C-alpha cells in the first residue's frame, strides 16, 4: 500500500500533443522547422508527418474532454511541458500574453479537476530564433533559459508546486539532435551518429546543466515554495557479453556518459573523470569553468525525475561514437518494446543504486511506458487490446514499489503516455498511449492498459495477488 500523498500520473510534452503550431501569436520552434521544412520524419519512417495538429491538446474543448478521461483513470497529477515559443515567440524579449494565458487556464482547469500540474520547462522544442543563434552550443543559452524560466515562475509559480527544468538531456542531445543534423545535411543515414556529434553536444549538455542549476537558484532566491527538479533518462548498462572485457569496459564508459554524467552533476556538483577526459580529447571547447561546478554544487534539485524504459545492452563497436553501441541489441528471449528490452528488475536496481550512491534523493518516476508493434495493439470492436503494455506497466510499478519498500524515497509514478502522440522522428507510427487516438478524427478510445492502470491506482499499488 502507498500513502495517499503518492502521486499517480501521466506525462506528455508540448510538441508531441499540442498542435496549434501557429495559434495566438506563437513563434516557430526548431521542431516546427524540422518537420515542415526538413521533413525529418520522412527520412526516418518514409512518412512526412508534423506536430502541426498532433492530438489537438491546445484546444480547450479537447483538453477538457481529456481531463475528464484523466479523472476516469484516477490520476492525481499530470506532467506536461510548455512551449517556450508560445510564451516568448522570439525566445527572448516580447512576451506573448495569449500563450501565458493559455497555460494559466490549463493549470487552473487541471487544479479544478483535482489534478496536480507537474510542469516541464523544456522538453526539446527551442524557439527557432534561438536555434538560429547557435542554440544550446552558445553559452548565452544559459541566460535565455533563465529569463524564460523566470517569466514562467511569475506566471505560474503561485499555482504550480512542481517544476522540472529539463527533460532527458542525453536522449535529445546525443541521439535525436545528431539525427536531425544528419537529415539537414542530407548525407548518409540519419542514424550515423559520430564522435563529432558527441564532441559538439558535450558543450550543449554542459549549458543545459548550468542553466538548470542557475534556474533552481533563481526559483529559491525568488521565494518559490514548491519543488523543482530535473528529469533524466536512466538506463542501467549491461555488457552484452559479460565474459568479454571489451564489452565490460564499453558498458562502464556508457554508464559514465548516459547515467553518471548528469547524476554526478546534479547531486555531487561535478562530472565523472571519464567524461572530462573523453570529451576534452574530442573537443577543446569542452572546458567547463571551475565556477560552473560551484553553481552545480550550490543548487541541487529538490527531486530527481527518473525516466525509465529499458536497460541498455552495450557492446564494443569501434565504428560507433566512443567505441560502443547500445540501442539495437536485445539478447533477452522476450521481445523488446520500442525503447528497448523489457526488464523491470533493472528499474528496481536503478532506484536502489540512486538511493545508495546519491544520498537517497526524493524521486518521481516521471516517465515509464511502452510501445509495441501493431500485432500487440489490436482494435477489437470498440476497444483496443494491448496486453503487452498492460503487463509492462504492472510489472514496472511492482518493481518501483518494491524499491520503495526497500527504502528508496519514491514519491510518484507517471506513465508515458496517457494518449498516443507524435513520437518525434518516428512520427505517429509509434504508439505509447493508454488511450488510442485516431489522428484523423481525434477520437479517443481507452485501451485495456487504461483499465489496468486504473485498477492499480484504485487499489493504491500492485498487490501480490495481481
Ligand atoms: C521522451 C518522450 C518520448 C518517450 C518515448 C522519452 O525519451 O521524453 O518525449 O516520447 O521517451 O520514446
From TrEMBL:
<feature type="active site" description="Nucleophile">
    <location>
        <position position="367"/>
    </location>
</feature>
<protein>
    <recommendedName>
        <fullName>beta-glucosidase</fullName>
        <ecNumber>3.2.1.21</ecNumber>
    </recommendedName>
</protein>
<keyword id="KW-0326">Glycosidase</keyword>
<dbReference type="GO" id="GO:0008422">
    <property type="term" value="F:beta-glucosidase activity"/>
</dbReference>
<dbReference type="Pfam" id="PF00232">
    <property type="entry name" value="Glyco_hydro_1"/>
</dbReference>
<keyword id="KW-0378">Hydrolase</keyword>
<dbReference type="InterPro" id="IPR017853">
    <property type="entry name" value="GH"/>
</dbReference>
<dbReference type="InterPro" id="IPR033132">
    <property type="entry name" value="GH_1_N_CS"/>
</dbReference>
<dbReference type="InterPro" id="IPR018120">
    <property type="entry name" value="Glyco_hydro_1_AS"/>
</dbReference>
<dbReference type="InterPro" id="IPR001360">
    <property type="entry name" value="Glyco_hydro_1"/>
</dbReference>
<comment type="similarity">
    <text>Belongs to the glycosyl hydrolase 1 family.</text>
</comment>
<dbReference type="GO" id="GO:0016052">
    <property type="term" value="P:carbohydrate catabolic process"/>
</dbReference>
<dbReference type="GO" id="GO:0005829">
    <property type="term" value="C:cytosol"/>
</dbReference>
